[in-house]
Amino acid sequence: MARLALIHGKDPLTRRVAEEIIASQTVEIAAMQQRLAILRRGEDPDSGNFPALHGTRGVGP
Fold this sequence. Notes:
By secondary structure, the chain is mainly alpha-helical. It has two helices and no strands.
């Protein structure tokens, strides 16, 4: 939906929000991919090594 807002949207604020959503979700997807790779290798299933999501949509410790 955010990509569609960038393609078709005219409102500057809506476009900015869409850009922020894409940026934060890109970080979150990378974190998920890192965690899944750790689990596939059978390494440290402890969530203490889960990549931090600090700064994405206000999520953090």
